[in-house]
Amino acid sequence: MANNRPTLYIGVTNNLGRRVFEHKHDMVDGFSKKYTLHKLIYYEVFTDIALAIKREKQIKHWNRNWKMRLITQSNPTLKDLYGRLN
Q: Which residues are within 8 A (CB) of 14 and not within 5 positions of it... i.e. 6 or more apart?
């Protein structure tokens, strides 16, 4: 999740559409609400939750430049991808 800066938030969920909806409508207190992170700019899909958590932890430890490079490889304009989920 991101805002227009973009400030980045990385997380794991078992229902991406629901979770993005919650972020977009500030339904969850915390980092994403504080920084109005309402844009889904990158996601990966896993069938194994253990692998998803491992990947989340890996990316969270990356520096900002590495994260932005990963995101812009598939989404160079940082457009909101939420519409792709519906």
A: 49
Residue 73's SS3 state is: helix
7 occurs within a structural domain: no
Taking only the tens place, the pLDDT of each residue in 7-55 is: 999 999 999 999 999 999 999 899 999 999 999 999 999 999 999 999 9
Report if residue 79 sits inside a domain. yes
Cα angle for residues 81, 19, 67 (degrees, 5° grid):
55
Global pTM?
A: 0.92
- Distance (Å, rounded) from C-alpha 51 to C-alpha 56? 9
27 in a structural domain: yes
Q: Is residue 57 included in any domain, yes or no?
A: yes
Other Cβ atoms within 10 Å of 39 Cβ, number: 20
Total of domains in the chain: 1
Sort 77 into a burial class: Cβ within 10 Å, 0-12 / 13-18 / 19+: exposed
